[in-house]
């Protein structure tokens, strides 16, 4: 009985707008926006993370995997109309850990075990731009083009500002798991499954909420929201103090998220990158 009643209500809701019921289906909803998966890219057995779009619609990301040689981290690229991910020539194999996009200078950088590389759009090859002995695990760039790296010191992951080839230690960022900086220079980070923000106008970090974390994850920003892909996908408005909201319907454990210029995005989960595009069909337009 209950099922029939529900079906009846559901069809009523859509038929009220003279639309077929299927048009109201959606793969994923964030606030009032509906998205459908429009493309799927294979990443083999590897887990994607640290995904970033450049201004031209290229998607760069890191894949983490294991094979008979042990662990590897490689950078991959999906060009705008491409159906598959490709390698970025020039980067050290197995030890390219991180991607960062400098929006101000429209440049893409790669953090590796052998220094920082930059992407050359003409040759489509990455070339070394620092001394090769800069040790890092991840690389980030703030709105002013300053570069930051994380690396281990005294057994803990720490944050450093790069000034040429010099590293300036940032205090208060011990034992980081993931860190990202937004376009207002607020630093967001995960430490021991807790999510914090260090705002540009405050001297101490503020706890936002609990997140699960298992070695791979990504913090990213879109409009005024901060997203955390770390097993589940959650988000919070930048002015909010909590709790974080959980996105339902994600495909398994997510480890990467990146938005493109039009507000569509990708999610990374083991073995694949999924592209989500806004689903602006009539059913939703009329309901909203
Ligand atoms: C979105 O996907 C669902 C199935 O997952 C489908 O029924 C629906 O028609 C799609 N909507 C659009 C606008 O593509
Ligand atoms: C990708 O395809 C779309 C539609 O087919 C086209 O308008 C666009 O110019 C293409 N982009 C690139 C970079 O080739
Ligand atoms: C810091 O900035 C945030 C967001 O812009 C604001 O909500 C907060 O009131 C500011 N705090 C102080 C101490 O100025
Ligand atoms: C976060 O988790 C801790 C336990 O680890 C719990 O005591 C605390 O209430 C949680 N906080 C929130 C905001 O969920
Ligand atoms: C968030 O805070 C900023 C700075 O305080 C303010 O300009 C903006 O309007 C706020 N946004 C919302 C949605 O409250
Ligand atoms: C997500 O990860 C947990 C372990 O961390 C695992 O038990 C679970 O099966 C994973 N879920 C999927 C859908 O892969």
UniProtKB/TrEMBL annotation:
Asked if the keyword Signal belongs to this entry, the reply reads: yes
Domain of life assignment: Eukaryota
- What are the protein's UniProt keywords? Signal
UniProt xrefs under SUPFAM superfamilies: Calcium-dependent phosphotriesterase
Known InterPro entries for this protein?
WD40/YVTN_repeat-like_dom_sf (IPR015943)
Q: Where does the record locate the signal sequence feature?
A: 1-16
Q: Please identify the protein, giving its name as recorded.
A: Jg20723 protein
- Organism phylogeny: Eukaryota, Metazoa, Ecdysozoa, Arthropoda, Hexapoda
